[in-house]
Amino acid sequence: MKRTILAAALLAAGAVGLLAQPAGKAAQAAPAQAPKGPAPKSQAELQALQALQAAVQGTDLDAIIKTCEDLLTRFPDTDFKDTVLTSEADAYQQKGDWIKAQIFAEQAIATNPKAANATLMLADILSKHTGEHDLDRDEKLTKAEASAHQAIELVAAQPKPPQVPDAAWDGYKKQLTAQAQDDLGLVFAARKSWDSAAATFRTAIASTPEPAYKVHLANALLQGGKLDEVIAVCDQILAEPNLNPRIQSAAKGIRASAIAAKATAK
Q: Where does a domain end: 112, 140, 164?
């Protein structure tokens, strides 16, 4: 998600035109454009936001975190505070530090309850990293479910920035909505509601046919005893070109389990 968070948030805020320009020209143009939404308050803040935009396009997660921290230290009242916090949360998520990722995602939501990306990230973290024996398991899953539903509503309500092509914006929203549906499916799976999980994964796949979502579907079908459907879904996954090795291994394992279960049932 990290390559789209900042750009999408700035697009939605109507400030991408400023960030796309050289700092000097953007600062001169800002008063004339008088943006109605969030905007940099100074050329220095604009340059800091441009630096963050550049950082999130790279692969140095520590650099992203440092850029976020520096920006919030220098400009604590920035209109883009929730975006910066979300970018920092995403960097920690990429590093595998789910605790800090959740902390910064929740800070972003506290700053802006309509922060769609942060809300989706919270749903993603809780749905994927709530353990079977966590003492607060039910609370986490309930929060994950609520966050996923909220993310879907927030994404749907986001107005399209005028400078973004319709197809690109629709694709972006479908991608985020599908991720939220996948997270919902994982919540149902954690509760062992296999039919509900499978149906929800199918909804995600219909929107964005990610191989990972198909693996989740195959596993839900396996747990629900729908073995022929498991094999069909796995065959579909394994037929895809340039498949991620982890996805390929998972699909092969699930398929093998379904074939073994069918043999045992005879």
A: 112
